[in-house]
Design brief:
The complex is a heterodimer of chains A (320) and B (595). Chain A has 320 residues and is mainly α. Chain A has 14 helices and 2 strands; from the N terminus they run H-H-H-H-E-E-H-H-H-H-H-H-H-H-H-H. In chain A, strand 1 and strand 2 form a beta hairpin. Chain B is an alpha+beta fold and 595 residues long. The chains are: A mainly alpha (320), B alpha+beta (595).
């Protein structure tokens, strides 16, 4: 197992290298904003633009620029400088990361608990009123765009602009280090909104898997051996049915750690997603590069976590 | 996205199309309206805290030498720093701020002498120190340094004796700026410079004093860090910055900017800023719809770095009791369609006039929101600017028949097409490369232009790209040979029409990148006229000269100017918002107050 993890971690490095290269080349070759001209003011003379281009290293060939970027990244963990925000990329990313982690972890707990819980009950009580209501609600939650759901939630439940003011509204996020209570209450509504569609997807997925698994021969054998229904469901049914959920959840959490753009935007949570969105609009290549690398890092790491988790969930899976 | 291009002060932030059907959407003569007093401070109350909600990233930089854009001026320049000259909400010409009077001119207007107001203190850690002439000299000189990144020094200060011609790696010494003693500053120029003798350009933040001995350390290296360590002269300072470093509790990029009172500021020394609020907090990263609702339904909040609320919010606001929370006034900017005169057949004036005639400016205005967002333009210089009336006022010049009908005139357009060599009145040539902004509402405008040009047979190779890409890779790059840029505009730097006309139409301004003369107008007679106008030192003579240039430019239709923009500000019911005409009628937060 250890060898497998080390091998996968080495592949992570290779993958991140290619992600950075592709991002760099895409933004270099495709039409994107010229940072030197943007920085030169609105009536720049050619000397000003040339000087800024030289200062930023933009007058060098793309491969030299890329080499310099990677050198700074590998040797000094330096992601470059954002000339749009006038700040180090690393500083800004690490400044924004806690908010994204807070949002993702809370939402993940919520959608896993809800999704697995509802999916299991629906599968066990197939065609019951609960099942019908839960699956109907899930369909609505899947269909509702997060941005719309967020706005709706704010206009209904936010303390400042809502009709039924219960939860703190947009812009109320505070870091956990500042006030754990405020942190928790400020994220309640975003967690619910972000978790809604994921929970709905997982509930439907688990329900379908579990129904299929519960009709397998080994489940009948377990029952024939006299195991309690609870033990059959939890130890034999769910354990087998949950593997696709683990795969999906791992990737989803990885993606969300790379930034939940819409949720962060609606609720004004200063996270990575909002940062990436603003950077793309502004053509801020160093910041885009930093957020893309971070997103890729989370996705491959979560992929690895999922693969390792398989070994514990499914006894048939063994890595050597 | 922030207002990072002052040349397009509203484009970057007006993220929603504002269709105000209830405001007489097809009216052609709507003038901008102010729903409540924009300058009155009769109800002003001292004290209290206000929160300003930003959606587009807030300020660009903390460094006064870098500030050039609308949000920088509103959120940092006016509240936290003082310059040689400034503008009150009522002023349309510079008011002495750190200077004690208007410049004393000698040597045919080529030597300007300023006396510095005594008793103006810096904030901690230099609280015991007062502003000296040498501090302003250093501040102006550092604007030429590459690591400061100033955007206008080479435009307005280039005729100062000894001024560098390109950015320097270190802060240069400019021989034409001297400080013979602590209270006297002398600037010598090679020719009379109208924007210095009427000191409009000296009201820009390059004259915010910066003590050399304190700042020099921060001005070393590839990027100056003075902004993070600055000392303040205005009524407010960034919270916690008295230690000499701006802490994260006072500023976080794109998230937070917290201003508190500057204990070193003495009200009696400041003729410009009443400074009513105790604290001003800017919160960034908001969603425009949510922020707009929070401001209108909440307390002690004001709109930040965005031009207007979304369509539905604005429509509801202007037709209900919320109307008194809106303040609408001309921004001092315009929107136009740039026609590249080096691309055939746009080199033909009759072809360009045909385009002007067929364009339905009312319809284009509706794509951005209708009358509330501006007045249909009839020439280039916008309202409230010197020369506006002489250039034709709101009605425009009667000789420009192609602008007579704001809804467009197809018959007239076809007649111009015939004069341009198209006997059928319809264009028969190759498609014209057109690059437009892909964000709302600009993309709606571009699509409307495409449709309208189709009426006279003009086909376009039409591409929509992000705003910054549109400018820096296409419309501002002559080599890209873009024929039509339908979603561009220009805003004033101050109340002098030189800042409107010269950047957009002066031939020598055509440069390989960052070219603001998108029409690539290079007419020797016009160039000479502009050079002469720049050297005029009498304000009324300057106004007339720039108005005459506007008439000529409008007649030749190098661009089709279709809108004079409004700034739509709004605030909570308990706020008395005061707009600041100098800065495109964005808020003057030192004159605004709680009720």
């Amino acid at each position: 197992m250890a060898k497998y993890i080390i091998r996968r971690l080495l592949w992570v490095i290779v993958l991140l290298f290619f992600v950075s290269l592709i991002t760099f080349v895409i933004f270099y070759l495709l039409p994107s904003a010229d940072p030197a001209t943007l920085r030169a003011g609105r009536q720049p003379n050619p000397a000003v633009v040339a000087q800024i281009r030289h200062n930023l290293g933009l007058d060098k060939p793309w491969y030299t620029q890329y080499f310099n970027y990677m050198k700074a990244l590998v040797l000094h963990f330096n992601f470059g400088y954002s000339y749009t925000n006038n700040v180090n990329v690393r500083t800004l990313i690490f400044d924004r990361l806690p908010a994204t982690i807070s949002l993702t972890v809370g939402a993940a707990i919520l959608f896993l608990v809800l999704g697995i819980g509802v999916g299991t009950i629906s599968a066990v009580r197939r065609r019951s009123k609960f099942d019908r209501a839960a699956m109907g609600t899930a369909l609505v939650a899947i269909s509702a765009p997060v941005y719309w759901l967020g706005l709706l939630a704010l206009f209904v439940f936010a303390k400042d602009i809502g009709k039924v003011p219960i939860f703190p509204g947009a812009s109320s996020y505070v870091p956990i280090s500042q006030s754990p209570t405020q942190w928790f209450t400020s994220l309640l509504l975003p967690w619910i909104v972000l978790a809604a569609s994921f929970a709905a997807i997982y509930a439907r997925l688990l329900r379908a898997n579990l129904i299929e698994v519960m009709s397998e021969d080994y489940i009948r054998t377990a029952r024939a051996k006299g195991l309690s229904e609870r033990r059959v469901i939890y130890h034999h049914g769910i354990r087998s049915a949950i593997t696709p959920i683990v795969t999906a959840a791992g990737l989803d959490i990885g993606v969300l750690l790379g930034g939940a753009i819409l949720t962060e935007t609606v609720f004004n949570i200063p996270g990575i997603g909002r940062l990436a969105y603003d950077s793309i609009l502004a053509g801020d290549l160093p910041m885009i590069q930093g957020t893309v690398l971070l997103g890729a890092f989370f996705i491959v790491i979560m992929n690895l976590v999922v693969d390792v988790a398989y070994a514990f969930i499914d006894p048939r899976v063994r890595y050597s | 996205m922030r207002k990072y291009l002052r040349s397009l002060p509203l484009l970057a932030t007006a993220v929603a199309s504002i269709v105000i059907a209830g405001c007489g959407g097809s009216s052609s003569s709507s003038s901008s309206s102010s729903s409540s007093s924009s300058t009155s401070s009769a109800a002003a109350k001292n004290g209290g805290a206000v929160t300003v909600l930003d959606v587009a990233g807030g300020v660009d930089s903390l460094d006064p030498g870098y500030w050039y854009y609308q949000t920088d001026y509103t959120e940092l320049y006016q509240p936290t720093q003082r310059a040689l000259y400034g503008f009150t909400p009522q002023a349309t010409s510079p008011v002495p701020d750190l200077a004690t009077s208007q410049p004393i001119l000698s040597n045919g207007g080529k030597t300007l002498t300023f006396h510095i107001r005594p008793g103006v203190h810096y904030s901690a850690p230099l609280a015991s120190r007062t502003v000296a002439a040498a501090d302003i000299k250093y501040a102006m000189e550092r604007c030429f340094a590459a690591n400061v990144g100033n955007g206008y020094a080479f435009t307005y200060f280039n005729n100062i004796v000894g001024a560098p011609t390109k950015p320097t790696t270190t802060v240069p010494t400019v021989s034409g700026i001297t400080a013979p003693n602590a209270s006297t500053l002398v600037i010598k120029t090679t020719v009379p410079v109208g924007v210095l003798t009427v000191p409009n350009a000296l009201a820009l933040p390059c004259t915010v004093p910066i003590p050399q001995d304190y700042a020099a350390n921060f001005d070393k290296g590839a990027q100056s860090t003075y902004g993070m360590h600055q000392v303040f002269t205005g009524p407010y300072m960034i919270s916690g910055a008295g230690t000499g470093t701006v802490p994260s509790s006072g500023y976080q990029t794109g998230k937070l900017l917290a201003l508190v009172r500057n204990p070193s500021w003495v009200k009696s020394t400041d003729p410009i800023r009443p400074a009513h609020f105790d604290t001003i907090t800017f919160k960034g990263g908001n969603d425009i719809t949510v922020a707009s609702q929070q401001i209108l339904s909440g307390q002690s909040m004001m709109s930040g770095d965005f031009a207007a609320p979304p369509a539905a919010v604005l429509k509801q606001g202007l037709t209900t009791s919320q109307k008194s929370q809106f303040q609408i006034a001309p921004s001092g900017g315009n929107r136009y369609i740039a026609l590249n005169t080096t691309v055939k057949p746009l080199d033909n004036v009759n072809f360009r006039r045909a385009i002007a005639a067929v364009i339905n400016r009312n319809a284009l205005r509706l794509t951005r929101g209708g009358p509330a967002i501006g007045t249909v333009a009839t020439h280039f210089i916008p309202p409230q600017m010197p020369g506006f009336e002489q250039a034709g006022g709101t009605a425009g010049n009667p000789a420009d028949d192609f602008y007579a009908n704001p809804n467009g005139n197809l018959a007239l357009a076809e007649s111009y097409m015939k004069k341009a060599g198209y006997p059928s009145g319809q264009y028969t040539g190759a498609p014209l490369l057109t690059i437009a902004d892909n964000s709302q509402p600009a993309s709606n405008t571009a699509q409307a232009v495409q449709s309208q040009l189709g009426q006279i047979g003009i086909k376009l190779t039409f591409r929509e790209v992000p705003h910054a890409t549109m400018l820096t890779k296409y419309c501002e790059v002559p080599k890209a040979a873009v024929a039509i840029c339908p979603t561009v505009g220009w805003g004033k730097d101050f109340f002098d029409s030189q800042s409107m006309i010269t950047p957009v139409f002066y031939g020598p301004n055509i440069v390989p990148s960052g070219n603001t003369n998108m029409a690539q107008v290079n007419v020797p007679a016009l160039n000479t006229q502009m050079q002469a106008a720049e050297q005029l030192t009498d304000p009324s003579a300057r106004a007339s000269a720039w108005a005459n240039l506007d008439k000529e430019i409008t007649s030749q239709v190098y661009v089709v100017t279709w809108l004079w923009d409004n700034e739509v500000g709004f605030h909570s019911t308990n706020v008395n918002g005061v707009q600041w005409p100098f800065n495109g009628n964005d808020w003057d937060l030192t004159a605004s107050s709680l009720k």
